[in-house]
Amino acid sequence: MSTAKSTALVTGASSGIGEEFARALAARGDDLVVVARDVARCDGLAERLEMQHGVGVEVLPADLTTKKGRAAVEARLESTEPAIDLLVNNAGMGTYGRFAELPRDSEEREIRLNVLAVVQLSHAALAGMIERGSGGIINVSSLAGYQPTPLNATYGGTKAFVTSFSQALHEELRGTGVKVMVLCPGFTRTEFQDRAGFDSGVVPSFLWQTPQPVVAAALHAYEQGRAVCIPGALNQAGAVFSRALPAGITRRIAGAVLPRVE
Fold first, then answer.
1. Active-site positions?
2. Angstrom distance (rounded) from CA 233 to CA 239
3. Contact at 8 Å (CB) between 70 and 78?
4. 261 band by pLDDT with thresholds 50, 70 and 90
5. What's the whole-model pTM score?
6. pLDDT in tens, 176-219
7. Helix residue ranges per DSSP H, the chain
8. DSSP class of residue 34?
9. How far apart are alpha carbons 149 and 85 in whole angstroms?
10. How far is the C-alpha of 125 from the C-alpha of 87, rounded, in Å?
11. DSSP label at 188?
């Protein structure tokens, strides 16, 4: 008897960690729905994955900072043609600089994408998953959510929310057959840093990871039913360090380590 294919929906799939999730899921045989604003990139990715792995890839263009974009993805998550078995909430953005000097609109967009979209898409996905007694969500957070992050204040705050929210859902869903895991990577080489205006050259090379091992660790941890995945021994040690010390100390350390804005 053949086993039905799984279908995964990945947001922010046009580059970086999201693109690697799409590649890894296609390589194991999952059909995909790839969501991003960059349609041309997603079309190219879909064509390559269909040819390489023989999977079906649906491209869903959406700007998740807008109500219209979120509604389009919510509708796909609520659809059963076919049902989504795994939601990867990867889309996110960051800003860098003194909060009081950053454009208010960009900070609001960051909250809509990093927080509101995660909440709304998770809610849209869960009802059907609970009814079917299977499926799950991987929410991509960040190691930055483990402590206050001066000059990344909004980004760190949004990721702290995602980490706490995801762990709470993991516990709420215990026994339902539905899994929720939060992925908290450290510095990962993607286009994210350039878009956020962050000078990646100030971070020592040994602290950087690439998307491939981050995603491999995430999928392995998800299959094990874990609530949290922090890829890399140094990142795991950093999370323990941040939790162990008082916030007053960790925020001063972060403020001293991060490059200053002149």
1. 155
2. 10
3. no
4. very low
5. 0.86
6. 999 999 999 977 666 565 565 555 555 556 566 789 999 999 99
7. 16-27, 39-53, 67-78, 104-111, 117-132, 153-172, 192-196, 211-223, 233-244, 247-257
8. E
9. 34
10. 7
11. B
